[in-house]
Amino acid sequence: MKAVAYNIKDYEKESLAIANGKVHDLTLISNSLNLHTIHYAHGKEVVIVSEDDRLDGDLLEELQRVGVQKIVTRSITTDHIDLHRAYDLGIQIANTPYADRTPKGIAEQTIRNLNLWGSGKCVGQACCCVKECNVANANQIKNGATE
Fold first, then answer.
1. Which residues contact 131 (CB under 8 A, 6 or more apart)?
2. Number of domains present in the structure of the chain
């Protein structure tokens, strides 16, 4: 998959490169994602962000316009992403939910998401879509949410 990772810190570069193993066409950018830096996402299927990148409806619309179909956040939380707008635009969202929060662990989770999507599979527990599916229902039960 073609992906661009925004807000990359120096200590993250090596971990991402090793986890990727030259499988995906991965561009690493130190700039945060915003309307002034969105041009780096042109021609990419996936954008990888940090929790410091704020993805509101306007930015998500622009990402869709330039061809982005999927977003991975290198965080557990998705508070910085308008998940409902992403769903309306058909953009899939994944996070990095596993306990290993080291740069290596986050990089491996990020590339795992790309590998699964590249194989046409669901990202499982990393799925942050708002649509109803077995994964979403299982995550709600696991997190104690009931309706």
1. 87
2. 1
